[in-house]
Amino acid sequence: MATKNYDSIFLNSHRRADLNESGETITVLLFNPGMYPQKVQLECTIEAMQQLVVEHLEFTAHPFDDYAVIVSLDLEHSEDCEPNRALRCPDGAIILVFNGSFMIVGGSKEEGLCSLTAKQIRRYEMEYHQPEVFSVFGDYGVVIPLPDDLIRT
To answer: What pLDDT, on the 0 to 100 scale, is given for residue 12?
Structure first.
């Protein structure tokens, strides 16, 4: 699968043209720190997304060509939140770490945000299934999968 330019994966969180605020119900994957992903249905509105993630949203295009969008806490407001999962390049290098809850939403050039397809749900549930633990040792960050017996329900 071809990758996008990593310098251009961040979208302006205030540009509502990318959000289809139709109020229709969409299916997304919700990722909470220390928990397995959850398939969730919600109205396609800023307010509904804020209830699941938090008030200060940021929209990040996933760096692959299926138009998935990560809706997360604005990086400015995430410092005090628990680290959740890392976004990685295809080679495994970490691009950034998401703190707090985030969700992955389907995206379309024509419709804006929309439901994930069944294929996308399988892909991202597998890709981000295992919660992660983050530690810093000197100048180095370490990311390891959270053991199953420590997963919150």
So the answer is: 38
